[in-house]
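TICKET: design request
STATUS: open
ATTACHED STRUCTURE:
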């Protein structure tokens, strides 16, 4: 997964303080000033979300304006999972 995080320029993981991700660690990649892809690390699984915040400073600290699950249990070996993340960066 490290290659995915580096390739798509995700932030380092940090603990969620908003309560939205149950205190799990998250990382994010900025699509534009208000929209972010977020990976939540839940034990050994990763869940991918698309979100909207008022600013980057709110990610992991406040509840998002919009949060939608893109993929639960992301697996980079599954082609559909790779396509799902790639479409946000096209």
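STATUS: resolved
RESOLUTION: sequence designed for all positions
ATTACHED SEQUENCE:
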């Amino acid at each position: 997964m490290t290659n995915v995080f580096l390739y798509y320029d995700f932030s380092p993981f940090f603990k969620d303080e908003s309560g939205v991700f149950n205190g799990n660690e998250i990382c994010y990649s900025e699509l534009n000033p208000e929209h972010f892809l977020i990976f939540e690390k839940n034990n050994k699984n990763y869940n991918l979300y698309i979100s909207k915040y008022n600013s980057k400073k709110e990610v992991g600290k406040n509840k998002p304006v919009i949060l939608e699950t893109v993929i639960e249990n992301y697996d980079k070996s599954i082609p559909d999972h790779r396509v799902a993340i790639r479409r946000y960066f096209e």
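CLOSING REMARK: The chain has a mean pLDDT of 96. The beta strands are 14-15, 25-30, 35-42, 45-52, 66-71.
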